[in-house]
From TrEMBL:
It comes from Streptomyces luomodiensis. Residues 18-428 form the Amine oxidase domain. InterPro entries: Amino_oxidase, FAD/NAD-bd_sf, Zeta_carotene_desat/Oxidored. It comes from the Bacteria. Pfam families: Amino_oxidase. This is FAD-dependent oxidoreductase.
Length: 449
């Protein structure tokens, strides 16, 4: 860490991608960020978990070809672009008991199979929205200008109301369930650019996981793991620091930390809990943002379960298992099972129960009788997948207006520009740029205090 830095001391709450991006942006602008996370390791929903002798990522791990801010961050930590392994989209769906494959290496044939029989009205609508995302990059993120106008013009209908059943079942639902945990009647047209952005992208991953990246980041930026932020310190409308707790029970230690500003980089419900004592209206707006639970199990087997052609399966709405896929192109013996969507919401977070259910569902389509399971790791997030809100750009504008009432506070998270890792970076950079500008003008000297 650079002890010579003299810029503003900014406390960042949350060590997931939103907080990491916020702290990185502040650091490279010359400020002194300190990052707090209640977990001992960084990464939040992308944190590493042990599986046998290796680490795996149970949450977000696929990086789009268009994830430019994230890739720039990776390079800045000394990890070359060549470290990425192409993952592609290879997904087969179970439809009427048959397995149908979409593969980005045979795009035309896959697309034909996917869109065959979709009514012309829906095709025209889909193409128009896809054109928006190509016309302006901002349309791939929340509050993109064309999607905002469309929401205002149409009354922001649900995607179930806007698209017919065939397109919904084949394309819209699998994308929503994966990214937002929402069913088509729970997601809105004005936010659909974020899903189209994902559908039109190609994907890579870092086969070595995120640990080398996070280690390099922690060497540059001060981080405090295992430290829960319990409150904001606010005096006369200005945020002046925070209250923290480390340890548990009799050994718990409470502290007060001073800061020139605080960035809250948490999922909206956790951010609401922190701001509620100081701004009830802001907390209320944050609680309007919807999240859905998701459980993920990664199982190791003694042999590849998937072949080269079929690397992932998506399941129909009545199945609590939404998706099962090979962990990586060269990790086809590791299977990642995802449970999201309506049928999965009340499942117990019990790994034996979940793996039993998952293997039964997958075993109906692939031969699991000849492989032996050798390991297992599981996670469940109650606020796992962000599904935003209806007229979400209005919700965001109201959040911004409320935040402005508390000097020295910035909020960021997956509800600001979208749930993709790149969107977390975009939101965090935008919000911390604005915070830095405010701190600079507060100092009255045209430079950071
Ligand atoms: C199963 C799953 C698969 C996904 N797949 C992909 C993918 O392939 N590609 C992609 O781009 N995106 C993916 N995503 C989305 C992406 O992973 C998330 O949107 C992103 O990780 C969210 O980061 P965040 O920093 O906003 O929140 P989080 O990662 O939730 O970080 C918040 C952090 O705050 C900490 N915290 C909470 N409260 C406190 C407190 N009071 N004090 C201190 N610390 C606190 C938590 O411990 C946590 O580390 C996926 C998400 C999930 C769940």
């Amino acid at each position: 860490m650079d002890a010579e830095r003299s810029g503003a001391r900014v406390a960042v709450v949350g060590g997931g991608w939103s907080g990491i991006a916020a702290a990185w942006n502040l650091h490279r602008a010359g400020a002194r960020p300190v990052l707090f996370d209640e977990q001992p390791v960084l990464g939040g929903r992308s944190a590493a978990a042990p599986l046998g002798s290796r680490e795996v990522t149970l949450g977000g791990k696929n990086i789009g070809r268009t994830h430019l801010l994230f890739r720039e961050f990776v390079r800045a930590q000394g990890i070359p672009e060549s470290a990425f392994e192409h993952f592609g989209i290879n997904s087969s769906r179970v439809e009427d008991g048959r397995v149908r494959t979409v593969d980005t290496t045979s795009k035309a044939a896959s697309l034909y199979g996917l869109l065959r029989g979709v009514p012309p009205r829906d095709l025209v609508r889909l193409l128009r929205l896809a054109r928006y995302t190509r016309r302006a990059r901002a349309n791939r993120f929340l509050a993109g200008p064309d999607f905002q106008r469309l929401a205002d013009r149409t009354g922001d209908p649900s995607l179930a109301a806007y698209f017919g059943k065939r397109l919904r079942d084949r394309l819209i639902r699998p994308a929503l369930i994966r990214m937002n945990g929402a069913e088509p009647d729970e997601a809105y047209l004005g936010n659909f650019g974020t899903n189209l952005g994902m559908l039109l992208d190609g994907f890579d991953q870092l086969p070595g996981g995120f640990t080398p990246l996070l280690t390099a980041f922690s060497a540059a930026v001060e981080t405090r793991g295992g430290t829960r932020v319990t409150g904001l310190r606010v005096a006369e409308g200005r945020v002046t620091g925070l209250f923290t707790t480390t340890g548990e029970g009799a050994g718990a230690e409470e502290r007060e930390e001073s800061a020139d500003a605080v960035v809250v980089a948490l999922p909206a419900p956790a951010a609401a809990a922190l701001v509620a004592p100081h701004h009830a209206g802001l907390a209320e707006r944050l609680r309007e943002v919807r999240y859905f639970p998701v459980s993920v199990v990664i199982a190791a087997y003694d042999r590849p379960v998937f072949d080269e052609r079929v690397r992932a399966l998506t399941f129909p709405p009545e199945s609590p298992l939404s998706n099962a896929g090979a962990y990586g192109v060269s990790d086809r013996h590791l299977v990642r099972y995802t449970f999201s969507g309506r049928a999965a919401r009340d499942l117990p977070a019990d790994e034996e129960y979940l793996i039993g259910l998952a293997e039964k569902e997958l075993g109906a389509h692939l031969d699991l009788g000849s492989v032996r399971r050798t390991g297992l790791v599981c996670a469940r997030w109650e606020h796992g997948l962000c599904a935003y809100s209806r007229f979400h750009s209005r919700t965001l504008a109201e959040i911004d207006a409320a935040v402005a009432a508390l000097d020295g506070l910035a909020l960021t998270g997956d509800y600001v520009r979208g749930a993709a890792i790149e969107a977390c970076f975009r939101g965090a950079y935008e919000r911390t740029d604005a915070l830095l500008a405010a701190l600079t003008s507060r100092s009255g000297r045209g430079q950071l205090p």
